[in-house]
Known about the structure:
This protein has about 325 residues and is an alpha/beta fold. The protein has a single domain (about 1-155, about 220-315), classed as Rossmann fold, CATH 3.40.50.1820. It is built from eight helices and eleven strands. The chain has helices spanning about 60-70, 100-115, 125-140, 160-170, 190-195, 215-230, 265-275, 300-315, and strands at about 1-5, 15-25, 25-35, 45-50, 70-80, 120-125, 145-150, 180, 215, 240-245, 280-285. The strands form two sheets. Strands 1-2-3-5-4-6-7-10-11 form a nine-stranded mixed sheet, sandwiched between helices. Helix 3 crosses helix 6 (about 215-230) and helix 4 packs across helix 6 (about 215-230). The chain starts with a strand and ends in a 9-residue tail after the last helix.
Amino acid sequence: MKEAASPDPLGPAFQPLVLPQPPDYEGPVQAVLVRYLPPPTAPAAGAVLYVHGFNDYFFQREMAEQYAAHGYHFFALDLRKYGRALLPHQRPNNVRDLAEYFPDLDAALHQIRAAGHTRPVLSGHSTGGLITALYAARHPAGLAALVLNSPFLALNQPWLRRKVAAPLAGGLGRVLPNLPLPAGLPDTYGQSLHQAYRGEWEYDLAWKPNQVFGVNAGWLGAIRRGQRQVGQGLALPLPVLVLHAERSTGGRQWREAFRRADIVLNVADIRRLAPRLGPHVTLQAVPEAIHDVFLSVPEVRAAAYAALFRWLADQVGQATASPQ
């Protein structure tokens, strides 16, 4: 483990730590753990590890500030082949099994526990929500709770693509993992977020481009296998909060409605599949939220944070408390 050679893009309040991993089929691999350095400004409640989604990385300074204001030591993880962890020889998001991310999570949680946080909260957004749910199913004992923000539990595709094309392409992933596939996402979601377009957020468009990174058959096969595991039931014994938008919409031409709905996933799939995560799942729809509920317009994300910290206080309380 080593500190990154350069300051973190989010500034001196954030400390990146490189987590080297064994090489894979592309060569050297690393993940990067980011720690928010200012101590919590409320009584100690524990620690949280946040994991980003697809075509994404950690840039949400406000999220770190919110957790610190509610007593949590905040950490975020850029998974292998994303954001801070992406190396020049790698294809972004190129994995062949979602369990490839588990060593990244192991290494990050080892650092967090070494800092005195014995049972952290694990949180994931979208694809990160699917990954963290699968990880928690394998390692539930060391976690206090799981917080999922619009988890990617099903493909948002028309019936024919979902039932015929995707299984065929995903199956090819075992023999032709590098077969390129269209990601199938328009640039409208990115437009709704970045301040250079129609949004309010500043982030690196090289790490989170509007025209999303391409995918391959190996990635799709990994996603489908992970989603099948959820569909079969994970039986998570820990409390799980699933935040999601109240409604979904779509289209490739910009509409103002895109600012107040999920245009990436179908929230009906989230509502249908989330109960299969385990017996202690709380579903929380956030009116007028977008796909990443914590990037919604200010009053909507304020409501999402309020719901999150009410739930944590009720379900976790001081059980995860760690020394300041």
